[in-house]
Structure formats: structure tokens, C-alpha cells
Amino acid sequence: MQNKFTKIGLISISDRASKGEYEDQGIPNLKSWLQKALSSPFETLEKIIPDERPLIESSLINFVDIELCDLILTTGGTGPALRDVTPEATLAIADREMPGFGEQMRQISLHFVPTAILSRQVAVVRKKTLIINLPGQPKSIAQTLEGLKNDQGEIMVHGIFAAVPYCIDLLNGPRIETHEDIVKTFRPKAKQ
Questions:
Q1: Tens digit of each residue's pLDDT (9 = 90 or more) over 33-50
Q2: Mapped to the 3 state alphabet, what secondary structure does the chain carry?
Q3: pLDDT tens digits, residue range 156-181?
């Protein structure tokens, strides 16, 4: 598995971006961050869809069951608005929930805005694929993935991506390596 490309699905969930009313920022920001953070080979599959639960569910199922993605990152549709149904769709297709990811994303965001408690991001496993709902704002995406650092570059609050490569390892996926100056992957000493 060492040299296998990691297949990463990127799904932006937005009514307006899917209609072309404005340019999607989620996928370009995710791709840019991945290119900066990952040192191991990867490829992406990308999709922009509206906030429609059946479409979100079928897109996630397709990326897992047919496209065989190792990791899926979604952006958008995780707030309390009536059209925000990404968490419900994600949980509906899941085999297992991974609650620590959502808890940590809210913890990071609370350092910036009190409304972080309104966020409903979840993470799940379907078959051998990790699926994470990220926030919709590009700046928030990078903050939740990388975590918070002080002026000397020391980690104050760990970002969620530090745990992603080891989670993929445990799911028998490809080995993901990162550039430590962006995000340092955590693996137990026996697995390093």
C-alpha cells in the first residue's frame, strides 16, 4: 500500500455555487491546502452539488462504493439553517460515527467566533472511507485542518488533519504523509 495514490473526494455543498450564481471557493481552497500539506501522492475527485439530502447521500455513496475514495472532505451545509442537511445525509450513509473530529473542529473555531457552537460538522466511516464535513468558509477550513499555532509556529490546538493519516492506516488505506511545517501527522511510535 506504500506507493498507492490516496484518492480524495472533494464535495462542495452549496445551492448558489451549484447554480453558478457565484464561484465555489470550497474545492479550490481544499485542493490548494492539500497540495501544500501532503507530501505523499494523491488525486482528487470533485463535485459541486446543491443542499439536497438525497443528492448528498448519493454523491457520498458513489465516491465510496464506486470511485473507492480513501478520504472524502465536504464543505458547506453544516449550519442550523433549514437547507443545511449535510450532517444528516452523512450520518444516513455511515457505518460508524467518529465524533472526535466534529468536537475538535468546534473547539478550534471557538477561538475565533462564538457562533462555532452552531456548527454541526460530523465525521464518519463508510466501509474503508473516512468522510469529514468541514466548515464552509475557506479560512475556517484551513484552521480546522491545521490547528492553531503561536507566533513561533508551535502548536497551541491540534488540527483535525493530524489524526487523518493514522485513521486511514487503521482502515487499511494508503499511507498519507504530510509536510510537518503545515500539519504534523500523529502516529503511535510503533507505527512510525
A1: 999 999 999 999 999 999
A2: CCCCCEEEEEEEECHHHHCCCCCCCHHHHHHHHHHHHECCCEEEEEEEECCCHHHHHHHHHHHHHHCCCCEEEEECCCCCCCCCCHHHHHHHCCCEECHHHHHHHHHHHCCCCHHHHHCCCCEEEECCEEEEEECCCHHHHHHHHHEEECCCCCEEEECHHHCHHHHHHHCCCCCCCECCCCCCCCCCHHHC
A3: 889 999 999 999 999 999 999 999 99
**Would the pTM of this model clear 0.85, i.e. be above it?**
yes
Count of other CB atoms within 10 angstroms of residue 79: 17
Q: Which residues pair with 124 in a beta bridge?
A: 97, 131
The residues spanned by each domain of the chain are: 6-191
CATH class of 6-191: alpha beta
Of 1-5, 89-93, 94-98, 158-162, give the lowest mean pLDDT range: 1-5
